[in-house]
Specification:
With 235 residues, the protein is of the alpha+beta class. The chain is built from eight helices and nine strands.
Length: 235
């Protein structure tokens, strides 16, 4: 993913051009994409999406995504940590509002002196373009801190979504949706994040990489080292 050199990011907002060279990465924040022209082929956690003009998608924190555009494309991209974007995960924006808004913001970014008022309000305007949140009958609340403690005591086991759902007294599909709604990420990404958080805490307490890996359930010290480096943390 390469930012358009003529449009540097402003408040996390940027214009980006994509080409036939395939890319792949993940990041610790939400990434909001709206197509301006061309078609971006996006694959998020094994699920394909086509982002054409006016289409959009929200990549949630930790989601590995591959991207390429065989004939070239351009997108408006917002990088943000705002938790409200979790309610937009899995949904497309409202057309044609999204395309009109994206084109206007693109023109703003292309100005030698971008209008700061427009760009300041851009994140909220884009959020509105996704429409109101889908009502969610929540039922019982999920004790996320309690679930994290429960998982921490079981790093030696091959935990899966069904195990987490059983703790929360929900079906796997209900738990998966609640995790996206409330935590802004998939259930397995939440679980991997908790494992990595525990390992980082152990390292900060002075434990060796090998001991931190053993206590947090990593298959080897090198696996923990690689996970920490992907996050940008010091092993």
């Amino acid at each position: 993913m390469r930012p358009d050199a003529s449009s540097p990011p402003v408040h996390g907002l940027s214009l980006r051009r994509y080409g036939a060279s395939r890319g792949s990465h993940s990041h610790a924040h939400f990434q909001v994409l709206v197509g301006l022209d061309g078609v971006l082929e996006l694959e998020v956690e094994g699920r394909g999406r086509r982002i054409a003009a006016g289409d959009g998608w929200v990549v949630t924190p930790g989601d590995r995504h591959d991207f390429e555009s065989r004939t070239g494309s351009r997108c408006l991209v917002l990088d943000t940590a705002q938790a409200l974007w979790a309610q937009c995960a899995g949904r497309s924006p409202l057309a044609p509002l999204s395309l009109s808004l994206a084109r206007h913001l693109a023109l703003c970014l292309e100005q030698p002196a971008p209008p700061q008022a427009a760009l300041h309000h851009a994140p909220d305007l884009l959020l509105e373009a996704w429409g109101p949140a889908v009502p969610n009958a929540r039922g019982r609340a999920i004790d996320w801190p309690g679930l994290a403690d429960w998982a921490r005591a079981r790093w030696h086991l091959p935990l899966c979504v069904a195990d987490l759902a059983a703790f929360a007294c929900l079906s796997p599909s209900q738990f998966a949706q609640r995790c996206r709604d409330e935590q802004g990420m998939s259930a397995m990404h939440w679980l991997r994040g908790q494992r990595l958080l525990h390992a980082r805490q152990l390292r900060q307490r002075g434990l060796s990489v090998a001991e931190a890996a053993r206590r947090s359930g990593y298959r080897s010290p090198s696996a923990l080292t690689a996970a920490l480096r992907r996050l940008g943390a010091r092993p």
